[in-house]
Structure formats: structure tokens, C-alpha cells
Design a protein that fits this description.
Chain lengths: ~280, ~250, ~300
């Protein structure tokens, strides 16, 4: 009797956790399906004009351009710093500053992104007297940096210490061992971090609210002038009472989803193959 | 002054652990000097004091002197980088850099240290080092391949070539055959016998048999202390210390 | 005496930049919050009042409702996310065949990385009406005598909607931490438990006890994420000052307050400073939560490795 009771319990348990696990992913599938169903007809109807036209023409061209500009500009600003910080944290794991650096990076990853946006507004946009691509990119760079730094750190840490020893045993300086031997060895992991960081910031909205400004009726012309972004545009359109704006928002969401999955899935699928 | 390496009251600590305890050791110039002992006796740690590689361990502290051809490498004005250029090292796990070609693996130390002036000189030196490491004939047609396809023994000889290319005065070897098959091991031991004509080789091994096969002098280390040192023949045939006798006859670890 | 390593020359500036940025943020929030803190004192955080006026002497602000909203919605999110994450971790580690396991992990990663605005648009256009019609209305119709369900769900924009949306968004974060911890349990422990004749259910119960610190820190970190989330929440919460436990009432969170009000705050004398003070409290909550969560996780990982 006792054993059959235990067996029933076991079954109920299995079905229970299986059901809860599946429940987690239902929203994801529903979101993807909804974005496809609502976004695809919009794009199909408006054609390439949707991807290249201005907002009054029913398109999100300037926003797409803005997202690319912001993403690459933020990479330009953030990557060197991120790489060097990640390398530092790897090289001095036990020093006080090294420990603090690692903790700070973790905290920055978890940090509310809206706070970064408001901060950059105060120190860049306010003195400049205008929203700008530069301010938006700087906010995104601050968000990008800890991701890339942590990935760099992890990628370096996966290299067996014997290669580090080998480098030093050749009479090389620390800089040469790390930058000329270990970093190239960890190339893939570092690159993965860079792409994940860029995929992340390409989808950010909050940090752009008070920094990028928005530009949807013409293509951006200068980094010191306001610029739009796809997520920022969606945020504004969702709040509009006009159903046409909602349609545009769904179309834009599909574009954003495609950009995100386009970067994210290939990386994520290839991750397993990272091997030394 | 005919000692390649000489330690004076050498002590190493990892945090609270005292792992090398006041060792005085004299390693003569030229020939193979084997540091042997059971695992955990401190022989690998000691080897790493000879090129200051021990400093990669943030917790390690070295006390006493290590003299390289008479010069204390732990005195304040000595740059560990310069020491390491003079002392080559081969590791327990054959570790050619997997992302570099066979050629670049041998060339990298010279290139990054800026020790050669021309491409021709570099080519020559790479060829010389590979020949010295008895690997040239096996790889001369595929210098631009990556070391991934080499056998364990070949990889280890590639690492030896990498170290030799720097023209070191001393070659440290940390159990170089521990991860190599018997055929590869035999080749490397053969190579040691050739190299010892020109170099001082310090070989760490946990196998008394290997020490007996290749070494001219041996030192027996146990729990961080130097138990016995002397010409190989004497230590193996007529050990002074009971522990040494137990070890060489296989009664100990 | 010793020459400076070129490695340090290269990396120190970057490290210093990052630390300066962080210190700079704290400084900017603090100095900009001072005028409001000076004028309203702690009432700024303890009172629920939002009176904007062109005449500075008539301006009064207290963001208690927004602070409450941040905490309340995050707690709702955690209450939903925690059991889901634990179930997921056990299922993926113990039961799922390898391929399915990988698929689940990839899906979870996608959910974690998905642009939050996409959660936002889906939340605003699907989740809010769905919850209103299928959850809030029935509960209100039959159980409105319970204070939690007492607010009439008119629009559906509410604490509940925000909490549920946040739950969906933070589950993958909590899941990742808990799954990793559960996966790290040394194999000999599992062996030992099964060798005693335990069923999987019984074994799981014991093993979950073993990773309790990791579960707690995963929860804390997920809470931190939820507190900081901005745009998705601001699209579903209704953006109204409402200091209440009623789940169906519209509300505010600190971050959605900043997102909503900052744009035109410069019109008023004290509103910008008030919003910086709001940011400061978010900063402090975020910092405290993350430091505690990360410390706990690290300590646990160290203990396991020993």
C-alpha cells in the first residue's frame, strides 16, 4: 500500500513540475505568435515602404537607422572599456580592486536601466542643450560594458592555466601574454559576449527615453542631433490612441524581434561548440 | 661557479602552508638533473621558483635565494621577465597554443620579445629549434597546420622547440612525459640525452625509473624537504637515507 | 623603483572609468535630489501626494505610492516566478532528456534577452484585457468583499497586470540561477540519497533544501530586476498614484513614474529634483538587493565547491 502511495505521489509530482515548466514558455510562444500575426500583415501591406519610409509615410526607416547607429556607436564607446575591464578582472582575481571590479560589473548588469538614461541626460543632454545620438549611445554603452566585460572575463577564465604559464615562461610581459596570446585564444567567447551585449542594447528602451530624443520623419544626419530607435518608437506608439499607430507599433515589434532573434539564436546555438 | 642553479635556504609558502622547507640545492652546469619525489612533495613548486613562474600564484611567497649562474634572481633589481627569457620551460600537459600554427608556436616567443631582426632569421631559428627538438622531419611539410592534429609526444616536442627557440641557458621540465604514451615517452627521453650535451635540464619526475634512465644527478624531495642529493648512480645504488631507499625501490608512493 | 607594467597602464584607465561612472551616477542622483529632500524631508518618501503647480510654493510631492508600487508589483512577480522557476529547474535537471533540456535552456535564455518593449506591447494589448476579462472580473464579481479584489477592474491596467507581466519577465532570471545551483549539487549527494531508497520526489525535496541559499539569492536578484523594469511596467500599470493593496487598482512604480513624468518635469521647480530623489531611492534599493543577492550566491557557490 505504502509503495503504491509513493508511486502516485511520484507521478503527480512529475506531472506537476512538467506542467509548470511548460507554463513558463506559453507566454513566449504567445508573444512570438502575436507579434507575427499582428505585425506581418502591417509589413506585408505597406511593403518596403514600411522598412524605409518615414513615420508619416507609414514607415519606420529612420527608427531602424537610429537603432543601428545607436547600437554601433555604443559598441564603439563601450567595447574597449569593457574588454580592458574584463581582462583586468581576469588577471587580478584575488586583488581587492579585482574583487571590487567583479562585484561592480555584476551590480551594473542588474541595475535599473532607466537610471542610466536619466544620469546620461543630466551629464550629457542637459549641458549640450539637446537630445542626441551621442547621449543615447553613451547610455547604451554603460549598459553594454558590464555584459561584455563579464563575458570577456569568463572566456579568459576558461583557458586552462597551463597556457598562461607557458606564455609567461617564454619571458613575455603580462600585457603580451594576455593581449597577444590569451585574448586571441578566447576570441570566440569574447565575440559571443560582444554580440550578446549588442543584441541586448539594440532592444533597450528605458535608457533612450531622455537621451536619444526620437527622430521619425527624417533620417539621422549627425550624432549630436536627436535620433530615433525602434524600441523607443514602439513605446511611444503604444501610448497613442490612434489604431494606425498601434499597427505601426506591431510591425515595428516584428522588426525588432527579427533583429533580436537574428543575432541571438545563431550565437546561442553555436555556444555549445565553444571548445579549446 | 660551475653551478647553473643554486638555492640557498629556499622556502615557499602558500598562505599558511609551508611547502618548501629550507632547501639548499646545487645544480651543476650541463646534464640532466632530476628532482624526484612522490606527488605533493613540492617538486613542481620548487621548479617554478627557478624561473619565478611561482609568482603567477597570488598566494605564494618565496623566501631565500635562487642563484642562476651565481646571480640571485630574487634580488630586488631583477626583472622576472629577463629571468624567464634565459630559462625555458616544458609542462606536464603538452600545451602548444591551439590557435597558433606549428610555425608560430615556435616563433611566438622570439616574435613577441622582438629577438629576431628579419623573417629569414626567424625562419632559420624555427627550423633550428624544431631540428633540435627532433620534430623537424615530422612537421616540415605542415608548418602552417595547427597543433591539434599532432600526437601527444609530438606536441610535447613542439613545446620543447618553443622553449629552445629562445636559446635558453637552462631548460625546466615539469613531468614532461606524464601525459604521453610510452612510445612518445621513449622519444622524449632520447631527446633529453641529446640535449643535455648543450643544456642544463632540470627534470621533475615522480618516477624513479625515469630518473634512473636519464639523469646524471638526482635530488629526492619529500614533504617539502630535501632528503638526499647526489650523482644518480650513487643515489640509486647506495642511498644514504632510508626514505630514499624506500622511494627508489617503489615502497613509497 | 619598479617599473610600471604596461598591462596596468592599459587596463587601469578602463577600470577607473567604470568606477568613476558608478560614483558619478551616485553623485548626480544625490546632488540633484537634494533640493527636494531639503524641502520635503523624509515626507518625500513617506507621503502619497503629487501636486504640481506653476507656483513653486504650492508644489508638494510624496512618492510613497510609487515606492509601494515597485515593491508590491515585484512581490507579486516573485510569488509567481519562484514556484515556476523551481519546478523548471527540477524538471530540466532531473527529468528532461538531453535535447529537450537544451531546448528549454535556449528558450529560457531567449525570454531573458527579449527586448522588454516587446513584453510591453504584448502586455498592453493582450495581457491586460485578458487578465481583466478572465481573472479580475470573475474575482471582482464573486469575491469583491476580500480587500485584495475590491477594486473594480475597469481598464485592467493594474498592480496585478504589472505583477504578472513582471513575473513572466523575471522567471527566466530566477530559473537560470536556480537551475545552475541545482545542477551543481555534487553527484555523490544524489547517489547517497537514492541509495537510501528515496523516490525522486523525496530526493528532490532534500536536494532543494540543500540549494535553499541559491534559491533565495535567485529570488532576490529577480526581485531586483523587477524593481528596475521600466517600459513594460509603465505600459500596463495605469500610471496612477494609488497607495493600496487592491490588486486590480491602477498604480505607479518608481521607474514608471520617472519614465512618465521626467519629460515635462522641467516645467516645475521641484519636480525634477523629486524624480532624482525617486531615482536615488531606486538606486539604493537596487544596490542593496543586488549586493545581498550576489553575496549570498557567491558564499553558497564557495561552500559547494569545498
Amino acid at each position: 500500500m505504502l509503495t503504491s502511495n509513493r508511486k502516485t505521489k511520484e507521478k503527480v509530482f512529475f506531472i506537476g513540475i512538467g506542467a509548470l515548466t511548460i507554463l513558463i514558455f506559453i507566454p513566449l510562444f504567445h508573444i512570438i505568435a502575436t507579434v507575427l500575426i499582428k505585425g506581418f500583415p502591417v509589413i506585408a501591406e505597406r511593403g518596403t515602404k514600411f522598412l524605409t519610409g518615414t513615420l508619416s509615410e507609414g514607415g519606420i526607416g529612420p527608427a531602424i537607422a537610429g537603432t543601428f547607429i545607436l547600437t554601433f556607436l555604443s559598441a564603439l564607446l563601450g567595447l574597449p572599456v569593457a574588454f580592458l575591464v574584463g581582462v583586468y578582472a581576469y588577471e587580478y582575481p584575488k586583488s581587492t580592486l579585482g574583487q571590487w571590479t567583479k562585484t561592480l560589473l555584476q551590480i551594473m548588469i542588474e541595475f535599473p536601466t532607466i537610471l542610466v538614461g536619466v544620469f546620461v541626460m543630466q551629464v550629457v543632454a542637459v549641458p549640450m542643450g539637446t537630445y542626441s545620438a551621442l547621449a543615447g549611445a553613451l547610455a547604451l554603452a554603460i549598459i553594454l560594458t558590464p555584459y561584455v566585460a563579464v563575458y570577456t572575463h569568463e572566456a579568459l577564465r576558461e583557458i586552462p592555466s597551463t597556457y598562461r604559464e607557458a606564455g609567461f615562461s617564454l619571458g613575455l610581459t603580462r600585457a603580451k601574454v594576455v593581449f597577444r596570446i590569451l585574448a586571441p585564444m578566447a576570441k570566440r567567447g569574447i565575440l559571443t559576449g560582444i554580440l550578446i551585449g549588442m543584441a541586448k542594447v539594440a532592444g533597450e528602451t528605458a535608457p533612450l527615453l531622455f537621451t536619444a530624443g526620437g527622430l521619425y520623419e527624417s533620417y539621422p544626419s549627425s550624432v549630436t542631433k536627436p535620433v530615433g530607435a525602434v524600441p523607443l518608437l514602439i513605446y511611444q506608439l503604444v501610448q497613442s490612441p490612434n489604431p494606425v499607430d498601434h499597427a505601426t507599433a506591431w510591425g515595428a515589434s516584428l522588426v525588432l524581434l527579427a533583429i533580436f532573434l537574428g543575432i541571438f539564436i545563431p550565437i546561442r546555438l553555436s555556444l555549445k561548440e565553444v571548445r579549446l | 661557479m660551475n653551478f647553473a642553479i643554486e638555492t640557498v635556504n629556499l622556502n615557499v609558502y602558500y598562505g599558511q602552508n609551508h611547502v618548501i622547507k629550507g632547501v639548499d640545492l646545487k645544480i651543476p652546469n650541463r646534464g640532466v638533473f632530476a628532482l624526484m619525489g612522490p606527488s605533493g612533495c613540492g617538486k613542481s613548486t620548487m621548479l617554478r621558483t627557478f624561473n619565478r613562474l611561482i609568482e603567477l600564484n597570488e598566494g605564494a611567497r618565496v623566501d631565500g635565494e635562487v642563484r642562476l649562474f651565481g646571480e640571485n634572481i630574487y634580488s630586488g633589481d631583477v626583472d622576472p621577465i629577463e629571468v624567464r627569457k634565459r630559462v625555458g620551460m616544458v609542462f606536464q600537459y603538452p600545451n602548444p597554443f591551439p590557435h597558433l600554427t606549428i610555425y608560430d608556436n615556435v616563433a611566438i616567443g622570439l616574435k613577441l620579445n622582438g629577438l629576431v631582426k628579419s623573417k629569414e632569421e626567424l625562419d632559420e631559428r624555427v627550423e633550428w629549434a624544431l631540428k633540435k627538438a627532433a620534430l623537424w622531419d615530422e612537421v616540415k611539410d605542415r608548418l602552417n597546420d595547427y597543433p591539434g592534429n599532432l600526437s601527444g609526444g609530438q606536441r610535447q616536442r613542439l613545446v620543447i622547440a618553443r622553449a629552445l627557440a629562445m636559446k635558453p641557458e637552462v631548460l625546466l621540465m615539469d613531468e614532461p612525459t606524464a601525459n604521453i604514451d610510452p612510445v612518445g615517452t621513449a622519444k622524449i627521453e632520447e631527446l633529453l640525452l641529446e640535449l643535455k650535451e648543450d643544456y642544463t635540464i632540470v627534470l621533475v619526475t615522480h618516477s624513479p625509473a625515469q630518473a634512473a634512465r636519464v639523469a646524471d644527478h638526482v635530488a629526492f624531495l619529500y614533504l617539502g624537504e630535501l632528503i638526499e642529493v647526489g650523482p644518480a648512480r650513487k643515489v640509486f645504488e647506495n642511498p644514504e637515507h632510508e626514505l630514499t631507499e624506500k622511494y627508489v625501490t617503489g615502497a613509497l608512493g | 623603483m619598479r617599473k610600471v607594467e604596461s598591462f596596468k597602464v592599459a587596463t587601469y584607465p578602463a577600470v577607473i572609468i567604470v568606477f568613476l561612472l558608478f560614483a558619478g551616477m551616485l553623485f548626480v542622483y544625490f546632488t540633484n535630489a537634494l533640493p527636494a529632500l531639503h524641502r520635503y524631508g523624509l515626507d518625500l518618501y513617506l507621503e502619497n501626494v503629487w501636486r504640481a503647480a506653476e507656483e513653486p510654493s504650492e508644489e508638494v510631492y510624496g512618492i510613497a505610492a510609487a515606492i509601494w508600487g515597485s515593491i508590491y508589483t515585484s512581490i507579486i512577480a516573485i510569488l509567481i516566478a519562484l514556484p515556476l522557476s523551481v519546478a523548471y529547474s527540477v524538471f530540466v535537471v532531473d527529468y528532461a532528456p538531453k535535447r529537450l533540456k537544451n531546448a528549454f535552456i535556449i528558450l529560457s535564455d531567449i525570454m531573458a534577452g527579449l527586448p522588454t518593449i516587446i513584453y510591453g506591447i504584448w502586455g498592453a494589448f493582450f495581457l491586460v484585457p485578458f487578465l481583466r476579462d478572465w481573472i479580475m472580473k470573475p474575482l471582482y464579481d464573486h469575491l469583491s468583499f476580500i480587500p485584495l479584489f475590491s477594486y473594480p477592474p475597469v481598464g485592467g491596467y493594474s498592480y496585478l497586470s504589472a505583477g504578472v507581466l513582471l513575473a513572466i519577465m523575471v522567471t527566466p532570471f530566477a530559473s537560470a540561477i536556480i537551475r545552475e545551483a541545482y545542477n551543481m549539487v555534487p553527484f555523490t549527494y544524489r547517489e547517497a540519497i537514492y541509495s537510501l531508497g528515496a523516490t525522486r520526489y523525496e530526493a528532490t525535496k532534500i536536494l532543494l533544501g540543500y540549494i535553499k541559499p541559491a534559491i533565495i539569492s535567485g529570488t532576490i536578484l529577480a526581485f531586483g530586476r523587477a524593481v528596475g523594469e521600466t517600459v513594460a511596467v509603465s505600459l500596463v500599470i495605469g500610471n496612477t498614484f494609488n497607495l493600496t493593496t487592491a490588486l486590480f487598482a491602477p498604480g505607479y512604480t518608481v521607474s514608471s513614474l520617472i519614465a512618465n513624468q521626467f519629460g515635462n518635469a522641467f516645467i516645475y521647480e521641484y519636480m525634477t529634483s523629486t524624480l532624482f530623489a525617486a531615482g536615488l531611492i531606486l538606486f539604493v534599493i537596487g544596490l542593496a538587493v543586488n549586493v545581498v543577492g550576489l553575496k549570498m550566491l557567491k558564499r553558497w557557490e564557495r561552500d559547494v565547491n569545498i
